[in-house]
Amino acid sequence: MRVTETFVSLQGEGERQGMPCFFLRLSGCNLRCAWCDTEYSFEKGTDRSVDELVKEIADSGLSYVCVTGGEPLLQKEELIPLLEILAAADIHVDIETNGTIPFDDVSAYASICMDVKCPSSGEMSDLSLLSALTENDCVKFVIGDEADYLYMVEVLAAHKPKAPVCITPVFGTDTKWLVETIIAERLPVRFQLQLHKVVNVQ
Does the keyword S-adenosyl-L-methionine apply (predicted)? Predict the structure, then answer.
C-alpha cells in the first residue's frame, strides 16, 4: 500500500470523536476539494506491507484504527487483506471516504464514514451510495455556507440514510448561524467541531 503517514492521536470527527486512535493515512485522492486540509496526501507516499502495518498497529496498543486519506478506497484491493486481519483481531476500523467509490466489499470489516461533498467543496459524492450505509456507519457533511446547509437538508430528505449524521463547519468559519439553524429546525444531526484542531493535535 502507498502510505502517506501513520500516527496516534484523538479521533477528531465522527461517531467516535475524542477516542484515542491509530491513524493510517493512505496516499492519493480522486478529488480536489477547495478547502482540503490534507493536500500533502496527494503525493506518492511510501510503500508499506500489510505485515509491517499490522505490527505497527499491534505495537500501538490500540484497538481502534481509522483508515483515511486522500481517498483510501482507491487502494481497496491492497487494503482488504489488512482489514481482514484487523477484524479477526477484534480491532475496530473506521474508513473515511469521499463517497465516490462503492464500499460494499469492505463494509464487512469496517464502519464507513461517508463525507458527502457539498457545493463549496467544488466536488460531488455519489449519493446513491448513501443507501448502502447502516446504523454502524456515519454520514458527514462539511458545511461552509448556507448553500451547503440547504444542500445537506435536500440530500437527507431525499435519501434518508440509516447512518447517524454529523455536521462539521469548515474550520475557521462562523458557527453561530449553523448551531442556531440546527436547533431552530430540530435537525436530527450531531454538530461537531474538528476536535483535533481545537485541541491542537494531529
Answer: yes
Has 29 been labeled as part of a binding site? yes
Residue 11 annotated as part of some ligand binding site: yes
Is 100 part of any known ligand binding site?
Answer: no
Asked if residue 177 belongs to a known ligand binding site, the reply is no
Please tell me whether 35 is known to bind a ligand: yes
Q: What pLDDT does 201 receive?
A: 66
Residue 202 labeled ligand binder: no
Residue 66 annotated as part of some ligand binding site: no
How is the chain split into domains, by residue range? Answer: 2-198
CATH number given to 2-198: 3.20.20.70
For residue 69, say whether it is annotated as part of any ligand binding site: no
Mean pLDDT in the chain?
94
Q: State the cell numbers at 163.
A: 447512518
